[in-house]
Amino acid sequence: MKFKLSIIIGMFLFLSAVLAGAEEITENKVTTPKVESSEQTIVYYLHMNRRCMTCEKLESYSQEAIEAGFEEQLKDSSIVYKVLNFEVEGNEHFAKDYKLFSQSVVISHQIDGEETKWKNLDKIWELVHDKKEFIAYVQTELKEFKKSLESK
């Protein structure tokens, strides 16, 4: 009887430890809000399978920059922020399309799902150690990108 009870308790503890250590994987499960307009600007944080602390900081700062500076545009879906792994099946084209070799922030303007213009924010690696400068850079680049679309 004690043996069976020990096995049951052991299994319970094992399962508890496994479940406590499990993380929900949400990477690449991007929920895109319903778009009423056929025109939108997508800000991609594109990463690879291997991610260091600096890479995670790039993602965090990018997201903060977009959410803090473009709240209304995010709500109306004229700007969408997406995090994608460009090494997973189906996303490999991002590396070729944007000539990527490492983590990047890319701004893409799309009309009816067709890209009309894009820009790789190539200074993110230089600015990652200065959060304020990084956020200002991303916000300024996105504002200028959007402004350039209006002048056409």
| Radius of gyration (Å) | 21 Å
Shape, per Cα inertia axes: globular
How many helices? The count is: 6
What's the overall average pLDDT, rounded?
83
Tally the beta strands: 4
Unreliable stretches? 10-33
Strand content: 15-25%
CATH topology: Glutaredoxin
Q: Give the CATH level 1 class.
A: Alpha Beta
Q: What is shown here, in short?
A:
With 152 residues, this protein is an alpha+beta fold.
Overall description:
- The protein has 152 residues and is α+β, with helices and mostly antiparallel strands.
- It has one domain: Glutaredoxin (3-Layer(aba) Sandwich).
- The protein is 47% helix and 20% strand.
- It has 6 helices and 4 strands, in the order αβααβαββαα.
- A 4-stranded mixed beta sheet has the order 2-1-3-4.
- Helix 2 crosses helix 6.
- The longest helix has 20 residues.
Give the topology, please.
Layout lengths: L1 H20 L17 E9 L5 H17 L1 H5 L3 E7 L7 H5 L6 E8 L2 E7 L3 H4 L3 H20 L2
Parallel strand pairs: 1-2
Antiparallel strand pairs: 1-3, 3-4
Helix pairs in contact: 2-6
Keywords:
alpha+beta, 152 residues, Glutaredoxin
